[in-house]
Amino acid sequence: MITSAVFPARYVQGRDALHELPALAAPLGDTALVVLDPGIGEWMRPHIENICQGKLTLQFFDFEGESTEHAMRAASEQLQAGGHHLVIGLGGGKAIDTAKGAAHYAPGTRIIAIPTIAASDAPCSKNAVIYNEDHSVARDLHGRNNPDMVIIDTRIVANAPSRFLSAGIADALATWFEAESAWATRHRNFTGYAPTHTAYVIANACYETLTEYAPLALSHCEAKLVTPALERVVEAATLMSTIGFESGGLGAAHGFHQGIAEWHETHGLLHGEKVAFGILASLFLTDKGSDLIERTYQLCHAVNLPLTLADLGVEDISDSYLMVAVERMMRPGECTFNEPVQYENKDYLDALKAADAYGRAFKTLPTAAQ
To answer: Which reaction does it catalyse (predicted)?
Structure first.
């Protein structure tokens, strides 16, 4: 059996790490096209221009905020027209994914990902999500290479709304449950080969880091503090989680996410918020023990993640409406099928119901009110 793993070429994290950009980028190019998240453009553009002045020439792509194929191809055209060999994705996951897409359509382009939030494990991955104009998911783009560099300034992360870190914790929490399934099945990971033991071990370390430090790190983020706990959780949610899912594998938790994303009520939610409920549903689907289920609900509650369908904004819990999600999950090739057991539609439907019922019951407990 052949196993394989992929990693970003370099990972840099810490307070004021963004100030290192000119020196770090120098080996990759002296000009760059920047895909900047429009939500932070007003303050970030002058900030990054000041940091790079006289050291790295920047041109900005007119990014409207959605990582559509049209945006990726337009950025690619601007890259090539400007003679740039370096693209920088700066902001949230969609800005970074658009930069990855631009590089994919302009082979040979180097990539620097600079997330300003720790909302998912996307920055270190070679994969990108392509959305439709209506904000629904179109497909995944499997890039040629992982980013050449990922730079995370934890001072910026700590000053972002803590909701983003909560979502990143959820996305990373799924990593261990799914890596366990991938290890059991030896299903092909994102390299096209079987998962490595390295990915399995790192996925477990990711889980252990989150269970010990996530609530503390979130409280520090809410207070806009950069602490060792915050640094540990940001690294787990960004670097460790990527290695775990990309070189390990995905499973039911992200399969449920694909289904949940079909409901129009969830289109305004963050990726990790939808994954969080996917984790909870997957616990019932895969017959996890009651102690693990309770601990997972406690952790999700402690970091402000959805525990019920109502928390996702979904009020219609009829079988017909829940089946909209299940049918999306069951499309050929989905990670839904990476579990050791092949389940039927009814199994996924009942897992959604069980997760919702447990969440509603959990919220009535005295500990949930604390």
So the answer is: glycerol + NAD(+) = dihydroxyacetone + NADH + H(+)
Asked if residue 102 belongs to a domain, the reply is yes
Residue 140 has pLDDT above 90, yes or no: no
CA distance 13 to 16: 9
In the DSSP assignment, the letter for residue 335 is G
Is 28 in the same domain as 85? Answer: yes
Regarding beta strands 127-131 and 137-142, do their DSSP bridges make them parallel or antiparallel, or are they unpaired? antiparallel
Token readout for 88 is 């920088």
Whether residue 243 is annotated as binding a ligand: the answer is no
The answer to whether the annotation marks 81 as part of a ligand binding site is no
Residue 153 annotated as binding site: no
Residue type, 90: L
Give the domain range for residue 125: 11-158
Asked whether 336 and 255 are in contact (CB, 8 A), the reply is: yes
Give the residue from 118, 139, 158 where a domain finishes. 158
How far apart CA 151 and CA 140 sit, in angstroms, is 23
Cα(261)–Cα(325) distance, rounded to whole angstroms?
8
Per-residue pLDDT reduced to its tens digit, 291-336: 999 999 999 999 999 999 999 999 999 999 999 999 999 998 888 8
Catalytic residues: 171, 254, 257, 271
- What is the rounded CA–CA span in Å between residue 100 and residue 142? 10
Q: Which two tokens stand for residue 361?
A: 């019951």
Does the pTM surpass 0.90? The reply is: yes
Q: Which amino acid is at 48?
A: I
